[in-house]
Amino acid sequence: MTSGGPICPDCGGTGWKPVEAPARGVVRCECMAQASLERRLRAARIPPRYEHCSFESFQTNLHHENPAYDESLRQARFLAERFVAEYPAQADFGLLFMGPCGTGKTHLGVAIVRALAEKGADCLFYDFRELLKEIQSSYNPVAETTEMEVLAPVLESEVLLLDDLGASKPSAWVLDTVAHILNTRYNNKRVTLITTNYLDAPTTRPSASGVVRDDTLADRIGERMRSRLYEMCRVVPVEAEDFRRRVKQAQYHFR
User: Fold this and answer.
1) Structure confidence by residue, pLDDT tens digits, 18-29
2) Looking at the domain 53-250, which fold is it?
3) pLDDT-wise least confident of 4-18, 121-135, 157-171
């Protein structure tokens, strides 16, 4: 039963249902576990855009002309599912999903959060840029929250999914904030899941002005914090084409 929802027919809203065997009495009703799960999912702050994300809905058969891409997606899902299956016995490290835009990294991160919530874990989703904006907004004299009120759940959550790490330009303040979050969670042995579009190896691409070198993850968060992530997270490469460009645009074209 959920607050304001229909009354559970098994327990009448009490949270306890009668049983006859092996002896007459009452036991906790299954509706209480469902209500608890719903509370954990609300507290996780999963954006509506990603509420549908699960392991079952993660597609791994999109690249028939390039089987290596689909194999990368299958391996990423396998590692994510194994992480959930072994949690919390192997909760001394997180996962770092690393790959180009639109390859399903956030989908897998949210799928882990949902699955861990079902196991009773308290999780939290934060987009990296939105987190920085909330912290900066707390500096406003008329703000209703303080910096520590914003950061406390980020630092203390049992499992944190930090989405799109490195998306903001690496000013001194951004680097200090990243260091504070990652070092605090590392020192307190909190599990951190991370997605990023930035790779470790430098890449180049053509542009109107010539060849452009893309930033690496170390360029965006600093060498010291990239080194810290080697201790905190196992890297999960997600190598594929941009799903949003490949599939979604095709859907719009044929509507």
Assistant:
1) 777 666 655 655
2) Rossmann fold (3.40.50)
3) 4-18
> Could you tell me where the beta strands, DSSP code E, fall in 157-248?
159-163, 191-196, 203-207, 210-214, 233-237
Q: Which of 131, 206, 214, 230 has its CA nearest to residue 174?
A: 131
Q: Characterize 55-67 residue by residue with b for buried, 16 or more Cβ atoms within 10 angstroms of its Cβ, and e for exposed.
A: beebebebbeeee
DSSP assignment of 168-185 equals S---HHHHHHHHHHHHHH
| HSE of 210, CA atoms in CB hemisphere, 13 A | 1
Q: Which residues of 136-153 are buried (b: 16+ CB within 10 A; e: fewer)?
A: eebeeeeeeeeeeebbee
State the Cα–Cα distance between residues 182 and 96, nearest whole angstrom: 13
How is residue 6 annotated by DSSP?
Answer: P
**At residue 120, what is the residue type?**
G
Task: Determine contact, residues 83/96, Cβ cutoff 8 Å.
Answer: no
d(CA 184, CA 205): 36
pTM greater than 0.90 (yes/no): no
Answer for the pair 40, 122: CB distance below 8 angstroms, yes or no: yes
158 DSSP β-pair partners: none
Where are the chain's structural domains? 53-250
Q: Range with the lowest mean pLDDT among 75-79, 177-181, 194-198, 236-240?
A: 236-240
- Which tens digits make up the pLDDT trace of 67-91? 899 999 999 999 999 999 999 988 8
Tell how far CA 24 is from the center of its chain. 44
AA identity, residue 96: L
Sequence-separated (6 or more) residues with CB below 8 Å from residue 119: 84, 87
